[in-house]
Structures are given as C-alpha cells and as structure tokens.
UniProtKB/TrEMBL annotation:
<dbReference type="InterPro" id="IPR036179">
    <property type="entry name" value="Ig-like_dom_sf"/>
</dbReference>
<dbReference type="InterPro" id="IPR013783">
    <property type="entry name" value="Ig-like_fold"/>
</dbReference>
<feature type="domain" description="Ig-like">
    <location>
        <begin position="51"/>
        <end position="145"/>
    </location>
</feature>
<protein>
    <submittedName>
        <fullName>Matrix-remodelling associated 5</fullName>
    </submittedName>
</protein>
<dbReference type="GO" id="GO:0043005">
    <property type="term" value="C:neuron projection"/>
</dbReference>
<dbReference type="Pfam" id="PF13927">
    <property type="entry name" value="Ig_3"/>
</dbReference>
<keyword id="KW-0393">Immunoglobulin domain</keyword>
<keyword id="KW-0732">Signal</keyword>
<dbReference type="InterPro" id="IPR003598">
    <property type="entry name" value="Ig_sub2"/>
</dbReference>
<dbReference type="InterPro" id="IPR051170">
    <property type="entry name" value="Neural/epithelial_adhesion"/>
</dbReference>
<dbReference type="InterPro" id="IPR003599">
    <property type="entry name" value="Ig_sub"/>
</dbReference>
<dbReference type="InterPro" id="IPR007110">
    <property type="entry name" value="Ig-like_dom"/>
</dbReference>
<keyword id="KW-1015">Disulfide bond</keyword>
<keyword id="KW-0677">Repeat</keyword>
Amino acid sequence: QTRGRFSLWENGTLMVRDASVFDRGTYMCKVDTEYGPSVMNFPVIVIAYPPRITSEPTPVIYTRPGNTVKMNCMAMGIPKAEITWDLPDKSHLTAGAQARLYGNRFLHPQGSLTIQQATHRDAGFYKCTAKNILGTDSKTTYIHV
C-alpha cells in the first residue's frame, strides 16, 4: 500500500520517502491477533534531511526601473543547505557567511537576493537552489522590469 510518501509493506514495514523534520514524532504499530491487539510505539527523530525551501519568491515579479526587488530563498536542511542563485545572464551566485554585493545585487547570508535600482537588464529568470549531501530543492521566479 502506498499513500504519498508512505508505503506499508506486506511484512509490516512502514517506509517514509524524502523524510523531513516534519515527519518526526511517535509512530504506532498495531497488530490484531487472535489473542487481542498488540501495540508498539516507535519514536522517530529526523537528524538529517534534504533541503526544503521554506521562504521563496513569487513565480512572477513586476517592478519599475529604479525600484528595489527582494527575493527570499531560505531553506531548512541538515546538513545546512548551500544556497545558490542562477541569474538571467547565466552567472551563478553562492551565499556565504557574509553578505555580498555583486554590482547592483545584494546576496544575504540566509539566501535572499536583493536587486537595487533595477533596470531592464535585470529582467529574466532567477533560480534559487538549496543543496546538501542528501538532495536539492529549487524555485524559479521571473522578473519583469
């Protein structure tokens, strides 16, 4: 039996795919026998999980020339996810321990990207990717200037 990310095998094994911190808690296995029910509890703590972007930009952003545009890209993941941005000019930015300024683009350590005084050259697709050893998650937005 499969329901979403959960599969129950014939031998009673429960399998959870793409586990995240939200799957933590106590799972209860109940077996009905001719002698009555038997119950066993399994506490589950998720200590490593692939990234999941929890704060993301809207799919399309409309702005006027000269305005400031801020796109959030924050992710949960253990080990901590590395945040990168792919820009319309095919360049790549990687968030570091310190805030960084790339021309008119400001990259925050948590992954947010701010475009200051936007021009028509800033229009296009921006892709945010969160990656750790267990997997990746990405979101794309299009900026119209």
